[in-house]
Amino acid sequence: MSQENVVESLLGETTQKKKSRIPARLDFLQSATGLFLAIFMIFHMLFVSTILISKDFMLSVTKAFELNFIFEGGSPVPVFIAISIVFVVFIFHAFLAMRKFPISYRQYLRLKTNSDLMNHGDTKLWIIQVVTGFALFFLGSIHLYTMLTNPGNIGPYASSDRVFSDLMWPLYIVLLIAVEFHGSIGLYRLSVKWGWFEGEDSKVSRKKLKKAKIILTVVMLTLGVMTLMAYMKIGYDHQENYGEKYMHTTEVNHAN
Amino acid sequence: MSREITITTLKYNPSDENSKPTFVDYKLEETPGMTLYIALSKIKATLDHDLTSDFVCRAGICGACGMIINGKPKLACKTLTSEFKDARIELLPLPTFKLIKDLSVDTGSWMKNMSMRVNSWIVTNEEYDISKFEKRIEPEVADEIFELDRCIECGLCVAGCSTAIMREDFVGAVGLNRVARFSIDPHDSRTDEDFYELIGDDEGIFGCMSLLACEDYCPKNLPLQSKIAYMRRKMVKV
Ligand code: HEM
User: How far does residue A159's CA lie from ligand 1's centre (Å)?
Assistant: First the structure.
C-alpha cells in the first residue's frame, strides 16, 4: 500500500498538501470515452446501413475492414482488434459514468421527485441517459461479445442470419433505441458541459445544439430501423441456406 | 374580471413535535397584477396568521422568497398569479436547504458554508492601502465581474439542481459562479492551481452533470452554463 494513497484517503489531500488530480482526469476520460463511443456509433451506423445500397457494397465494406487489400481474401484479426478496442473503451466509459447513477433509494426518490415536479427538459434528458446507459451494460455487452467471437463472420448473409435466424433482432431493436438516445443526448451534453460551439450567446447556441441533437436521433433511428428491416428481410429469405456465405456478384458470374 | 384562485401550500414545523407535514388549500380572489408575494401576504393577513414564508425586498433583489411554485423553483415576488391558467398554485419550500417552517428555509447558513468553502473573497499578495483607489481594471473586465456579482444567493439554482438534490455536499452553481467571478478578477492573485484546491473534486466542478436547471431557473439570468463550462475547462487542465 503506497503511503501517498494512505495519506490521501485519510486526509483528502496528498503529501504535498494538494488536492488529487484524479477527479479531473476521470471527468476528462468520462467525456473522452463518451465522445469516442458516440463517434463510433455514427460511423458504425453508416457502415452497417450500406446493406441498404446493396449486398455487394456491404460485402466490400466488411472486406475492407478485414484489410483484404493486404491479406488475400481478408483476415478476421483486424476486425477482432477493432472490436476489442471498442469493448475496452465501452467498459471504461461505463465504469466512469456509473459514478453518476443515483445509488440509494433516497437519491432515486429525490431525483425523480425533482424531475417530475420541475418537468425540466435537460434534467429529463439526463434521466433518459441514465436509464439507457444502464440498459447498455447488458445490450452492448451481448452485442460486443457476439461480434468479438465472430469477427470473420460479418457479411450480407452472415449478419442477416444472425439477425433473423439467431434471433438477435429483438435485442437489436432495444439496443438501437437505447444507443441512439444515449449517444445523441451524450453529444449534446458534451457540448454544453465543455462549452463547445458556444459562440456569442450560449442561450442561442444551446437551442441550436438541441435541435441538432433531435435531428441526429431521428436520422440515426430511421436509418437504424430501415437497416434492421433490410437484414431481417434477407435473413428471412435466406433461412433455408443458413450459414452459407454471400459471394460477390462478379465472383458468382465468374464461377458460372 | 377577477377570478378565485386556490393556493395549496405545505405546512410543517419541524421544531414542533406535534406538527405533521400537511397540505393546506387557501382560496382567495385574484387582484390585478397580483404576485405570489401579494397573495401570500393576503393569506397571512386574512386566512392563516400561522403560515410562514420569507420576504424582504418584494422586488427580486434580496433573494429571500425563493420557493417551489407548481414544481419549479421561482421567486414568489417575481411570479404573477395570472401565469397559472387553471387558477391552482401549489407551493413547496426549496429542497436541500434546512426547513424552518412551512415555506421558509434557511438559505443563509448554506450560503455561508459555501462562501467559506470556496473562499469567496479577494485574495492578494499585494499590500492593500485603503486610503488609495483600487487598482484600475479594464471596463470590459469590470462589466464581466459585475455581471457575475449580480447573484442574489436565492438558492434557486441549488433547488433546481438534481446533482445538489442527490448529493447534498455539492457546491452548486452559486458556488462555481463565485469562483469564476474571482478567477476573472485581476485584483485576485490566485492561480488556477489555487482554485483547484477549492473546487477540484466531485463535490465541486467535476460533480456538475450539466443538467442546466441552474441556468434555466436563475431569476437574474446569470450565464451559469457558460461560466461552469469555463471553470471546468480551466480545472481539467490544472
Ligand atoms: C454500459 C454502457 C454505458 C453506460 C452505463 C453509460 C452511462 C452513462 C451515463 C450515466 C452518462 C452520464 C454521465 C454524466 O452525466 O456525467 C453517460 C454519458 C455519456 N455517454 Fe454513456 N454509457 C454507456 C455507453 C455509452 C455508449 C455506447 C455511448 C456512445 C454511443 C455513450 C456515450 C456517452 C456520451 C457521449 C456521454 C456524455 C459524456 C459526459 O457527459 O462526460 N455511452 N453515459
Answer: 27
Q: Report whether B146 contacts B204 (CB < 8 A).
A: no
| pLDDT score for B217 | 98
Q: What is the spatial distance between Cα A147 and Cα A186, in angstroms, rounded to a whole number? A: 24
Long-range contacts of B120-128 (CB under 8 A, 24+ apart): B120/B178, B120/B182, B121/B182, B122/B182, B122/B185, B122/B187, B122/B188, B123/B182, B123/B188, B123/B189, B123/B190, B123/B194, B124/B187, B124/B188, B124/B189, B125/B189, B126/B189
pLDDT of residue A120: 98
Instruction: Residue B156: list chain A partners with CB under 8 A.
Output: none
Judge if pTM exceeds 0.90: yes
| 3-class SS letters over chain B | CCCEEEEEEEECCCCCCCCCCEEEEEEEECCCCCEHHHHHHHHHHHHCCCCCCCCCCCCCCCCCCEEEECCEEEEHHHCEHHHCCCCEEEEECCCCCEEEECCEEEHHHHHHHHHHHCCCCCCCCCCCCCCCCCCCCCHHHHHHHHHHHCCCCCCHHHHHCHHHHHCCCCCHHHHHHHHHHHHCCCCCCCCHHHHHHHHCCCCCHHHCCCCCHHHHHCCCCCCHHHHHHHHHHHHHHC
Neighbours of B77 (CB within 10 A): 23
Query: Residue whose CA is closest, atom 7 of ligand 1?
Result: A133
CA distance A188 to chain B (A): 10
ipTM: 0.94
A36, A47, A53, A70 from A212: Cα distances, Å? 18, 21, 26, 39
Quote the DSSP letter at residue A17: S
Low-confidence stretches of chain A (pLDDT beneath 50): none
State pLDDT tens for residues B28-52. Answer: 999 999 999 999 999 999 999 999 9
Closest chain B C-alpha to A35 CA, distance in angstroms: 15
